Automatic annotation (TrEMBL), chains A, B:
Protein name in UniProt: TetR/AcrR family transcriptional regulator
Pfam families reported for this sequence: TetR_N (PF00440)
DNA bind region: 38-57
Keywords noted in UniProt: DNA-binding
Organism of derivation: Micromonospora zhanjiangensis
Length: 215, 215
């Protein structure tokens, strides 16, 4: 993004420092997990002084919260950029699902899951994350609807999009410890046909073997 | 389970001590998460001496591995016991899905997820868990097929059962920080109708509004 003309050089430097800290936090979460992510390790990795780190994010909780928000924005931006070059038409749904599956089995999902699981037993972090989770979830849903060109006024379409995202969330967990791509690929091949039928609302109301789960 | 007549009293005591340690491990994981679960905390909670704990499970990794296996067995036993009293017939599929959803949003799933996420960045634990994960996954699949009375020779049925379990896994994650039961209930209501159609293999090949996702 181009720099806003109303920002001073000092503000620009602050933003750059913050961005480096947040990127380093995400990388730490992916590499070392929640317990291996400390503010000291993050500051070193970001090449930011301990003082500057404490100035911008005084605690691990504030750092991680900001990183999760940053992560969600980065993920949405990456998805939009990739989607912009996708062809319209017949193959689009398949490509969108492949793209989303890559996101839910990639490092950004893993970093988020580390924070989510840690927050479960950390009341302070949890209280801060709950509203953020709701917002990120809504945005992910909206983005998926947009990418699929789905019309949520069609009965069942909203639930079909939700089920797709929950399924992908589960496939992300199934991929945590080992490469689940072969099973996932086969499963998603059938899901894509199922989803295509659901989005047009013709499922179960017209004989359409092409759109069947079992074909 | 009744005690095997071939076991000595000493063996019986060992088994009881092990069971107490494994139950305490699961409880600790649920309450305090991975990082709050230490062998000392577990021994205290189980009312087992530190020496006895070290004798049976010398490291956190061996303790947690045994607990995960114990947890999977306990989960399967609980599901079977609940399923045994379910009525056959029309409402059975709905009840089976409700039961499985309760498992995937309950403490046993949460304890497992703590270990899975920790193992991602712990190579020793990860190597030990991968074969166990594969076995537990297969058993969960087989159990679900059995409970649903599904016939996997019908095309698409295997994938439908897999998708159901991956969806439930994702719904478990979505429920980690806040009560997602209202959204989950609505989503599963539509999923149940969808699944019923998929299991009979009639989906998309015959007009059947009752079995439609969108009704």
């Amino acid at each position: 993004m181009p720099a806003s003309p109303t920002r001073t050089p000092q503000q620009e430097r602050s933003r750059a420092t913050q961005a480096r800290l947040l990127e380093a936090t995400v990388e730490c979460l992916v590499e070392h997990g929640w317990s291996g992510t400390t503010t000291t390790v993050v500051a070193t990795r970001a090449g930011v002084s301990r003082g500057a780190q404490l100035h911008h994010y005084p605690t691990k909780a504030t750092l991680v919260m900001a990183a999760v928000e940053h992560l969600a924005e980065r993920r949405a931006a990456e998805i939009r950029a990739e989607a912009a070059v996708l062809p319209a038409g017949a193959g689009r749904l398949d490509r969108v699902i492949d793209m989303l599956a890559a996101v839910f089995t990639g490092p950004l999902y893993v970093a988020g899951l580390e924070v989510w699981v840690a927050a479960r037993t950390d009341p302070e972090l949890r209280d801060a994350l709950v509203p953020l989770e709701a917002r990120v979830g809504r945005e992910m849903h909206r983005l998926t609807v947009e990418l699929l060109g789905a019309d949520e006024r069609t009965p069942g379409v909203r639930e079909a999009v939700q089920a797709t995202l929950d399924l992908l969330r589960g496939l992300g967990v199934a991929n945590l410890l080992s490469d689940d791509s072969a099973r996932r690929g086969a499963l998603l091949d059938t899901w894509k046909r199922q989803l295509a039928a659901m989005l047009t609302g013709d499922q179960g109301t017209s004989p359409n073997p092409e759109a069947s789960w079992s074909t």
